Amino acid sequence: MYITKTDYLEYLFCKKNFWLKKHKPELFEDIELSEFEKKIVEEGNIADETARHLFPEGVLVTTHEQEALEDTNQYIDTHEKVIFQGAFFVDSFLIRADVIVWDEILGGWELYEVKATTKVKREQLHSHIKDIAFQKEVLTRSGLSVVKSCIIHLNGEYKRRKDISWRDVFVIEDVTDEVKEVVDEVSMEMDEMKKAMNMPEGSGCACIYRGRSNQCTTFAYSNPKVPEYSIHDLHRIGLSKKKLEAWVDEGVFALEDIPNTSILNDKQALQVQTYLSGEPFIDRDKIRKEIESLEYPLYFFDYEGYGTAIPEFQGYGTFEQVPFQYSLHIMHENGEIEHREHLVRQKRSDIAGSLVKQLAEDIGPKGSIISWHKSYEVGRNNTLARIYPSHTHFFEDMNDRMFDLESIFLNQLYVHPDFKGKTSIKKILPVLVPELTYDKLSVKAGDQAMERWEYMLSEECEDEEAIYHDLLEYCKQDTWAMVKIYEELLALL
Questions:
Q1: DSSP 3-state assignment of 337?
Q2: Which residues make Cβ contacts (< 8 Å) with residue 172, sequence separation at least 6?
Q3: Which residues pair with 172 in a beta bridge?
Q4: Residue among 389, 383, 330 nearest 361 (CA)
Q5: Which domains are assigned to the chain?
Q6: Which residues are in the DUF2779 domain (predicted)?
Q7: How many CB atoms lie within 10 A of CB 125?
Q8: Angle between helices 464-492 and 284-292 (to 10 degrees)
Q9: How many CA atoms, within 13 angstroms, populate the side-chain half-sphere of residue 129?
Q10: Average pLDDT taken over every residue of the chain
């Protein structure tokens, strides 16, 4: 069994999960990547490929396994100055280096790691540094001298123009000194990994001290005593490390076993209270105040968007989402409801022009605009205002009139034990409106909608009409779900 840089990063995150991947791969067989996760992998590959434009004289190792190792050695022996995806295997460790460049002046190799990210947070940068330090150590153990270490990442300030300048798309950051600071530590961790891989299976995993959203894939397997709904699901418990660690060390996992609920913050306490009582908490007065602040007609509104690492359309930046679809349910004061929608069907430089034009016709000058998690819609409006400056006032006005229906649940004006601390529309809807479901739809999530739209516009697509219909139905369901949740709130008053 060999160890890759992905294995190394997995080891740093959760040693038990790393061990299970090597010894019990069947645990991962039924775990399918979401469309969003697949997209992240795809974008990483695209960034890696396009970054090669920065080194036009490079040669690419296209083979695999033993053949890739032999081809890499041949390129080194024939003094190729730039090698993409060079393969190196030594002492159980295997890497494919994104880019290595021969430095004639320093008499050694420069190592470049491509990341499909823009500006990263400090803890993420530390992970990137250790990633490239791992690769440097493998190269060093293979007999190569690494004289420089760099990270190539995307330029968050870049906006797509007709002609792409790859020097503008990417930023090269020299992290040689940072890598030197951690390389000894990384070398020790590599040796520890080899030992850990050959040890018997241990119990539990480090993720027991993390909130639910920051746990490994095999958490349930490694921690069978932890209930499906536990202390790990409490509101922002990951930020209360001392609190979580104390409970875990005491063997407290179930919400009903928390010994001292007085140490919970208000949101956590209310979450536990509703769970223990089995009854929802509803602050009718505050909900009424929120609803009475809304002005008819009510526009229940939702965008679907598409973003890529290398912006595909003019005016858009790295990972900046292009709104390609919207759904709009309009509720009038007399109770009448009408539906409007738009879905972009053609790729062109002015990709959202038709959408903007119709949206400006569909949304009138008065009335509240209701969304779910409104920061997404507000962000898309800001992008469209920049690209279509003649509509700036329209989009600014939309944002001023925007009401976030999720805020009712985020602010805990309505807390139900079956929400399990979550506030996404797909967690709230089954509880309040169980008869309305996404299960029968062909498109069930936003990341899937993005993938389907991309495919629909491709030359390979053979079922455009079916996908077009599926996308319309999905987006329509999102806004209709908001209508039905709103009606449920009204019925409480």
A1: strand
A2: 54, 112, 150, 151, 152
A3: 152
A4: 330
A5: 3-197 (3.90.320), 225-279 (no CATH), 286-492 (3.30.420.10)
A6: 299-424
A7: 18
A8: 120
A9: 19
A10: 94
pLDDT, tens digit, 9 for 90 and up, residues 273-310: 999 999 999 999 999 999 999 999 999 999 999 999 99
Checking if the pLDDT of 235 tops 80, the result is yes
Provide the pLDDT for residue 37.
67
H-helix or E-strand spanning residue 425? helix 425-432
What count of other Cβ atoms lies within 10 Å of the Cβ of residue 122?
6
β-pairing verdict for 82-90 and 59-60: parallel
- Alpha helices (H) in 170-312, listed in sequence order: 176-197, 219-222, 241-250, 266-277, 284-292
Look at residue 432 and give its three-state secondary structure: helix
One DSSP character per residue, 348-387 reads: -SSTTHHHHHHHHHHS-SSS-EEESSTHHHHHHHHHHHHH
Q: Is 316 left (phi over 0), alpha (psi -120 to 50) or beta?
A: beta
Cα separation, 277 vs 417, whole angstroms: 8
Total number of residues shown for the chain? 493
**Nearest in space to 86 (alpha carbons), one of 103, 73, 102, 105:** 73
| Amino acid at residue number 124 | Q
Q: What mean pLDDT comes out for the span 324-350?
A: 95
pLDDT tier at 163, thresholds 50, 70, 90: confident
- Strands across the sheet containing 369-371: 337-343, 322-331, 298-306, 369-371, 402-404
3-state secondary structure 175-208: CHHHHHHHHHHHHHHHHHHHHHHCCCCCCCCHHH
- Give the closest residue to 144 by CA, choosing from 119, 173, 111, 109: 109
Work out the burial of residue 472: count CB atoms within 10 Å of its CB; fewer than 13 is exposed, 13-18 middle, 19 or more buried. middle
Q: What is the DSSP string of 90-153?
A: ETTEEEEEEEEEEETTTTEEEEEEEES-SS--HHHHHHHHHHHHHHHHHHHHTT--EEEEEEEE
| pLDDT reading at 263 higher than 80 | yes
Backbone phi and psi for residue 325, each to the nearest 5 degrees, phi listed first: -160, 150
Residue 39 has pLDDT above 90, yes or no: no
CA-wise closest residue to 97 among 125, 55, 126: 55
Find how far residue 356's CA is from the centre of its chain: 27
Provide the whole-model pTM.
0.91
Closest of 221, 222, 245 to residue 232, by C-alpha: 245
Taking each helix axis as running N to C, give the angle between helix 5-13 and helix 176-197, from 0 to 180 degrees, rounded to the nearest 10: 80
Residues contacting 303, CB < 8 A, separation 6+: 323, 325, 326, 376, 377, 380
* Calpha distance 291→472 (Å, rounded): 28
Cα-only R_g, the chain: 26
> Tokens 């959203």 identify what position?
213
